[in-house]
Amino acid sequence: MVARAQPDRKQLPLVLLRLLCLLPTGLPVRSVDFTRGTDNITVRQGDTAILRCYVEDKSSKVAWLNRSGIIFAGEDKWSLDPRVELEKRNPLEYSLRIQKVDVYDEGSYTCSVQTQHHPKTSQVYLIVQVPPKISNISSDITVNEGSNVTLVCMANGRPEPVITWRHLTPTGREFEGEEEYLEILGITREQSGKYECKAANEVASADVKQVRVTVNYPPTITESKSNEAATGRQALLRCEASAVPTPDFEWYRDDTRINSANGLEIKSTGTQSLLMVANVTEEHYGNYTCVAANKLGVTNASLYLYSKYGRG
């Protein structure tokens, strides 16, 4: 079979002219003796659709048409689409097979049959379903605590996907409603982390993507541990702070900033800072101040190094 371009009506065989006269608008008219109701067939995008049609006898003249024109006239293929073929598993079957179905294939298809006694048509409406696919989601963002945040998640699919949001915390809180936009007013540090957007319809598995929200906030001292030590021994003062971005630490003795020298060493890693005294003397006892700072604020805590034999 050789595919042909759609001809001018004057070039059509007489039988096709008669069939087309029955279908001036692509629908059966009242002069048709037998009309079968429209059947719906639902196919997922990329699959193969089989549009069934049967004739009463081998002498019937048949054709497949859609809104664009003739697809097949008898065994003669008029469509240029290589995905379209006839399906004839027995002499009375005249079905249409469409491979790798796409959304533009959706619509009404008509099998028109001309017999010796009764012309008839049967219609099939092809519905193409498309799995959900997230087409656009917000990039990872960093905001300051107290800011208003709007996350966006757009998805395509047929039927229209249902979009839901979930904060990926141990409790896995889901947000009520089905919204492309998730608004968080006055965001707190507890609301930082990953947010999952899920787009779902009944066609295939849901499409899921994530966006990370980082919330900046000023330092808060979460632990400051004083200590006691005997002279001649090693001592350790520890200070921890919670902050985003990670805080910088400084240590002071009275109003004097301490540097790593003269037996004192400062080690700061992440949210923790240690002040180590290698060999405690009487001059080391007293009050120390740990200062934690980032671009949003500064905080401090007082720690004490006591004598092991008594606190003065």
From TrEMBL:
It is a lipid-anchor; GPI-anchor. Residues 24-122, 132-214, 219-306 form the Ig-like domain. Residues 1-28 form the signal peptide. InterPro entries: Ig-like_dom, Ig-like_dom_sf, Ig-like_fold, Ig_I-set, Ig_sub, Ig_sub2, IgLON_domain. One of its GO terms (biological process) is cell adhesion. It is found in: Cell membrane. SMART domains: IG, IGc2. Its main location: membrane. Pfam families: I-set (PF07679), Ig_3 (PF13927). Keywords: Cell adhesion, Cell membrane, Disulfide bond, Glycoprotein, GPI-anchor, Immunoglobulin domain, Lipoprotein, Membrane, Repeat, Signal. GO terms for cellular component: plasma membrane; side of membrane. PROSITE patterns: IG_LIKE. Belongs to the immunoglobulin superfamily. IgLON family. This is Limbic system-associated membrane protein. It comes from Columba livia (Rock dove). The lineage of its organism: Eukaryota, Metazoa, Chordata, Craniata, Vertebrata.
